[in-house]
From TrEMBL:
<dbReference type="InterPro" id="IPR000286">
    <property type="entry name" value="HDACs"/>
</dbReference>
<dbReference type="InterPro" id="IPR023696">
    <property type="entry name" value="Ureohydrolase_dom_sf"/>
</dbReference>
<dbReference type="GO" id="GO:0040029">
    <property type="term" value="P:epigenetic regulation of gene expression"/>
</dbReference>
<dbReference type="GO" id="GO:0004407">
    <property type="term" value="F:histone deacetylase activity"/>
</dbReference>
<dbReference type="GO" id="GO:0016787">
    <property type="term" value="F:hydrolase activity"/>
</dbReference>
<comment type="similarity">
    <text>Belongs to the histone deacetylase family.</text>
</comment>
<protein>
    <submittedName>
        <fullName>Deacetylase</fullName>
    </submittedName>
</protein>
<feature type="domain" description="Histone deacetylase">
    <location>
        <begin position="24"/>
        <end position="283"/>
    </location>
</feature>
<dbReference type="Pfam" id="PF00850">
    <property type="entry name" value="Hist_deacetyl"/>
</dbReference>
<dbReference type="InterPro" id="IPR037138">
    <property type="entry name" value="His_deacetylse_dom_sf"/>
</dbReference>
<keyword id="KW-0378">Hydrolase</keyword>
<dbReference type="InterPro" id="IPR023801">
    <property type="entry name" value="His_deacetylse_dom"/>
</dbReference>
<dbReference type="InterPro" id="IPR044150">
    <property type="entry name" value="HDAC_classIV"/>
</dbReference>
Length: 300
């Protein structure tokens, strides 16, 4: 049974008008339990992180402004959420969920954060609904604790992992790989170690062919001993924010290839769920649940 970070605060840090994107954090665990993919004891509630782990990635001035709720109005607008103590607590627990999940993946082979994938958070600012960069924080934690020597971040969300790229731009121990929509946000991209930009309406066959040609090469050349996978389902053609053309089947095949590759090479992997904004919540839940179904088949 693979461990899954989940905390009730994941689903309710926002005013009513902002809550639709959070609904999946309530419904997805219910779906996984309903299908018997996992049992209740698979879930763990992350506590609050040691701030030194946050400060290993994020600038102290920015973290202090978050904790004291003293970000200026312009910085809050870039984040896109009203700033509150509850929202900051959510982001802190979310980051700890990914740290703890990474530790657990060293033992079990794989672990999930039912939320996470906050890849637009820079070292010194937040943007696009991301305050703290959970996988960047956890990657640096593994390196600092000597639990890993080389980390590969595989970001397959429709949006470029711009914050992650900025954070690790001078860190040779972390290789950042982002495959994303060329015309999607962010409109000014950062430079990952490897960026693959996809044209609008890229379909399953093109997406999967690029992934099949790239990931094994990165495993071979970079020789990571830990992988962070951002499995956003906003690559779907039905996504209202994404511009790609993938199907549910193609999205599941993407997850199968990434997780099977990690499993085949014996590389532990932590998975954060990332984005998903299809108009029908059932589509979002189905796409995210597929990631867990794949893992259940591989890591039984």
């Amino acid at each position: 049974m693979f461990p899954i970070a989940y905390h009730p605060i994941y689903k309710h840090p926002l005013p009513e008008g902002h809550r639709f994107p959070m609904l999946k954090y309530e419904l997805l665990p219910q779906q996984l339990l309903h299908e018997g993919i996992v049992t209740e004891n698979a879930f763990f509630e992350p506590g609050l992180p040691d701030l030194q782990h946050i400060l290993a990635v994020h600038k102290k001035e920015y973290v202090d402004d978050l904790l004291n709720l003293t970000l200026d109005a312009r910085a809050v607008r870039k984040i896109g959420f009203p700033l509150s103590a509850e929202l900051v607590e959510r982001e802190l627990r979310l980051a700890q969920g990914t740290i703890s999940g990474a530790e657990k993946a060293l033992q079990t082979g794989i672990a999930f954060n039912i939320a996470g994938g906050t890849h637009h958070a820079y070292s010194n600012r937040g943007e696009a609904f991301c305050l703290l960069n959970d996988q960047a924080i956890a990657a640096q934690y593994l390196l600092d604790q000597k639990f890993a020597k080389k980390v590969l971040i595989v970001d397959l969300d429709v949006h470029q992992g711009n914050g992650t790229a900025e954070i690790f731009q001078h860190n040779e121990k972390v290789f950042t790989f982002s495959m994303h929509g060329k015309s999607n946000y962010p409109f000014k991209k950062e430079k990952s170690d490897l960026d693959i930009e996809l044209h609008d309406n890229t379909d399953d066959s093109k997406f999967l062919a690029l992934l099949h040609n790239t990931l094994p090469y990165l495993i071979e050349t970079q020789k990571p001993d830990f992988v962070f996978y951002l499995s956003g389902v906003d690559i779907l053609a039905t996504d209202k924010l994404g511009k790609l053309g993938c199907s549910l089947k193609g999205c599941k095949e993407r997850d199968t290839f990434v997780l099977a590759t990690c499993h085949q090479h014996g590389i532990p992997v932590q998975v954060s769920m990332g984005g998903g904004y299809s108009l029908d919540i059932k589509t979002i839940i189905e796409a995210h649940a597929n990631t867990y179904r794949v893992a259940a088949d591989l890591y039984h």
